[in-house]
From TrEMBL:
<feature type="domain" description="VapC45 PIN like">
    <location>
        <begin position="2"/>
        <end position="77"/>
    </location>
</feature>
<dbReference type="InterPro" id="IPR041375">
    <property type="entry name" value="VapC45_PIN-like"/>
</dbReference>
<protein>
    <recommendedName>
        <fullName>VapC45 PIN like domain-containing protein</fullName>
    </recommendedName>
</protein>
<dbReference type="Pfam" id="PF18478">
    <property type="entry name" value="PIN_10"/>
</dbReference>
Length: 125
């Protein structure tokens, strides 16, 4: 299952779902005001591949702890310029196979950042 959090527009999640039917946007599973620690814990327990644009998730102690404890695997999209929704979807779809491959072969917990150019960097937990 691919889990897309609220930092990624629902329309982008819908585009991902066209390519991978087992994709959910946070609002499909949780109330939109659900704390990151709650959905991250569930994503880890369920073994969901997480896609987010929330760069701060790497640095907040509570979220890092939950990622570590639950065994979550997260991909954080990082880019400097503002992207249109269609560009965000294109970015994700361009690198989705690599995300899935890393998700399968990287021991969890982990956080990878993914740049617009397709550079993946594992963030140290």
């Amino acid at each position: 299952m691919i889990f897309v959090d609220a930092s990624v527009p629902r329309s982008v999640a819908a585009e991902i779902k066209k390519a991978r039917s087992k994709t959910v946007w946070i609002g499909d599973v949780f109330p939109l005001d659900t704390k990151d620690t709650v959905w991250l814990a569930e994503a880890g327990r369920q073994g969901w591949l997480v896609i987010t644009r929330d760069k701060k998730i790497r640095k907040r102690p509570g979220e890092r702890r939950v990622i570590t404890e639950s065994g979550a695997g997260c991909f954080v999209l990082v880019y400097r310029e503002d992207l249109k929704k269609s560009e965000i979807a294109e970015m994700i779809l361009s690198f989705l196979e690599e995300m899935e491959s890393l998700f399968e072969r990287t021991p969890r917990p982990f956080i990878y950042t993914v740049t617009k150019n397709g550079d993946f960097k594992q963030y140290r937990l």
